[in-house]
Amino acid sequence: FNTLNSISTLVLLKQTDRANAMLSRLSSFLRYTLVNESTGMVTVAQEIETLKLYLEIEKMRFEDRLRPHFTIDKSVMRAHLPSLLLQPLIENAVYHGIEPRVEPGEISIDIYTSRNRVHAVLRNPFEERSTHHSGNKMAIDNIRERLQLHFDAEASLETRIRENVYQVHIVLPYVKATA
């Protein structure tokens, strides 16, 4: 919805090239989400592709203020995880960590393996006024439920705030895609 509002604003401002570019990116993102339904499993590589599509849209909104940084261990690219598991976290990172700021902020996504587990760590700037937004809690609760559904007690999600950085750490079993 934020993207549609941004596109509407660009149209009103007669910035049609930017509006068309944003519509194209939104179309790619929506097409991907329809192909990989949210109840299914995807590879880490596919999930990263989705995150990058989403962040391209947000980058058009926030320009240089949004600085995404990916560190992905190559050995984890074929591991399975629930489709769109990380996207709500990125959306919250933009909403709570980038949008309220005037200065640029980095959203970092690190995914690696350790002891036959996949670790996904997301970090974003933290603004004190963001702590009471119910949307963040709902996203975290939803992701916990999805992890429980797919992996039972073998997966976990922890959050913490340290030195003005909000961090989410997800751990799940390493299940490698076949083919």
Radius of gyration: 17 Å
Distance between the termini: 36 Å
The string of secondary-structure elements, in order, is: HHEHEEHEEHEE
Secondary structural class: alpha+beta
Strand fraction equals 25-35%
Side by side, the strands of the main sheet go 2-4-5-7-6
Count of helical stretches: 5
- Helix percent reads 40-55%
Average pLDDT confidence is: 87
Shape: globular
How would you characterize the largest beta sheet? 5 strands, mixed
Low-confidence spans? none
Extended strand count: 7
Folded structure, characterized:
- This protein starts with a helix and ends in a 6-residue tail after the last strand.
- The protein is built from five helices and seven strands.
- With 179 residues, it is an alpha+beta fold.
- The protein has helices at residues 2-12, 16-35, 44-62, 87-98, 134-151, and strands spanning 41-43, 66-72, 80-82, 105-114, 117-125, 156-162, 165-173.
- The relative contact order is 0.13.
- The strands form two sheets. A five-stranded mixed sheet has the order 2-4-5-7-6, with helices on one face. The chain has a two-stranded antiparallel sheet with strand order 1-3.
- The chain is globular.
- Helix 1 runs antiparallel to helix 2 (16-35) and helix 4 (87-98) runs antiparallel to helix 5 (134-151).
